[in-house]
Each structure stands twice: as structure tokens, then as C-alpha cells.
Amino acid sequence: MSTRSRRERRDQPAWAHYPDHRLLDVRLCDLGLGIEGTPVEGLVRRLYGELAGQGLPLRPHCWISLEWFSPDGVPGIALPFYLMHPRLKALHWRFIGEVEGGNARELMQILRHEAGHAIDTAWRLRRRRAWRETFGPASQPYPMTYRPRPGSRRYVQYLGGWYAQAHPAEDFAETFAVWLTPGSDWRNRYRGWPALAKLECVDRLMAEIRGQRPPVRSQRQVEPLSDMRQTLGQHYADLLRGERGPNPRALDTALRRLFVAAEGRRRGSSAISLLRRETPALTRRIAVRLDVSDYLVREVIAMVIGRCRALGLRIRGSRREALPRAERLIANQVGRTMRQRGPRLSL
Predict the structure, then answer these.
(1) Secondary element (H or E) of residue 76
(2) Is the dihedral of CA 95, 97, 99, 102 positive or negative?
(3) What is the pLDDT of residues 219-252, one digit of tens each?
(4) Please, where are the H alpha helices in 97-245?
(5) In whole angstroms, what is the distance from residue 306 CA to residue 290 CA?
(6) Those residues with Cβ within 8 angstroms of residue 305's Cβ, 6 or more apart along the chain or in another chain
(7) CA nearest 54: which of 187, 181, 188, 213?
(8) Are strands 76-80 and 259-261 parallel, antiparallel or unpaired?
(9) Which of 11, 33, 140, 202 is 20 to 30 A removed from 1 (C-alpha atoms)?
């Protein structure tokens, strides 16, 4: 090991070298995380530069919490803790099967989206007639799920999953993100789309507030990680259990009945490869059958893939036989999740 490698290892927090079972016993508040010195810091500064380039004086303050959000009444952005260290990103991937904002491009996209919420809050834009007439009433309840219309040109397409269609506040944040993105050429990209009127509305609103001091300037941090006494293990148990998804023990039992452990088996296809290949088709069929959003079905499939990876599962029998059984299992888990969770307000 080189001198530099030894020095970098010494600079890491002690928990970075723990095995998973020991890391899961660490409390969230004891991780000692900060944004400074991480790759995230540079991307936050890039966001500030983009806002400054548009003449917008707001620099949304950022803090670390459990997930992405920009709370009502606070023009700031909460960032998920797992983005602050590669060891935590790996752990999150193991349990959830995805890392939201896991690369620079996706992280910048989400930062711009959340900055849209912060701008909306800071200048109380949703109270203005132009905002309401263009995007709809922000007081509209968030739906438990939504079924997007992929072919609609009334909304911009930014984060994926047609998220602008979820709620007027998300429509504004997505439209703002497109408007803010350097080189987006939104006038040409959305020429002929009804969504262009929304982009032009954002452009006019930003011209109105450009250089003005925002009336809402709270620096409060909502649900900061430093206040959270639960362990990482308890956090992920909550994510996989009642609050946000299926019961992990019941799911593992069902998966072991459906598939077979790879140990001692050199033949047979990976369960992960089957599910990944069939995700688009499974998502469409299950979303239509259960009348739920594509987002929710993909979320459950990603979690199922994560458990298949952790358990090392392979297909029992042929792909043709395994696929309908897998579809029934996923549909059952989606239904279970729907009964357990309330509206999803992330992003």
C-alpha cells in the first residue's frame, strides 16, 4: 500500500472500515457527516453558480437528512446522508437497489429540481396569479399515486417518470429545472409543445424577482441527521418494512420459494438478470392492472432485485416458468406497499 493510500485510509472515519453488521449498529447522528470536503460540495457550488448566472440572489442552504426534500416554509435543500460517503452509498445500494443522485449528472438534476421548490418558497411564487393559472393550485392534495401520460406535451420531461405530472408544485420545480439547466435550449427543445408556455411563465417570473431580496429567508434545518438517534440498521428496517415497503422477512421467504440460492449451483440464470430485463414490461402490466404509478412498481422491483442480490438467487426452472410467478409476487408486494404507505412526497 502506498503512503498516499495509507494516509487516505487514516483520514476515513472509523465506521468506513466496519463490516456491514457492525456498521448497521452505528447511530445516524454518530456518523459525523458533513457536506464540506465531499464531491457533493462542489456540485452545490455549481448550483449556486447557475443561480448567480441567472441573477437570482438565493443560495439555498443545504443540510444532511434521510432523503431529498425541500420543506414548506424553508427555502433550503435536504440531502440524503448516503451521498456523503462511498461506504454509505454501497450500503444503501445493498438494501434499496438504487442510489438517488448517485452520479454527478443525476445529483445536479435533483439539485436543480429542489432549487425550484426553494425559489418557489423564498418568493412565495405559488401565491401569484400567473403561477396558479399556469401550473394549477398548489393547495391541491398530493395524490397517493398518479398515472402519468407519457405522450403528453403539456409537461416538461426532466427527472424521468414524467414526474412533472404528479402535482402542480412538482410541475413548477421540473419546469424551473429545465429553465435553469445550462445549454438546455428550452425554447427550441419545447417548440410546439404546450409546455413551452410554462417555461415562458417561469422565465417571466424569474425576471420579476431577479436581483430582489426574497421575503422568506429561514435558515432552519428540518429533520437534520444530527437529531436522529436510530441506527442505520433500524433505518433500513423501517424502509423495508411498514413505512415504505414490504416486510423483508416475508419477502425473503417468498423469494426463496420462487428462486433458488446460487450456492452449489453453477447452472441456471440469475434472478437479477431476469428481473432487470423484464422490468419495463412488468412495470407496464402491473401498473395498469393495479391502477398505480410506474414509479411505485419500479421502486418495488428495484427493492426485490436488491434482495435477490443479497440472497444470491437464481432461477428455478425455465425463464418462461419463472416470469409469471415473479410477476405475481411483485404485484402482491406492490399491493401490500399501497396499503402501508401514505402519499410519497419525495423530491
Answers:
(1) strand 76-80
(2) positive
(3) 999 999 999 999 999 888 777 754 444 556 677 7
(4) 104-122, 129-135, 168-180, 186-189, 195-209, 232-240
(5) 23
(6) 97, 272, 275, 276
(7) 181
(8) unpaired
(9) 33
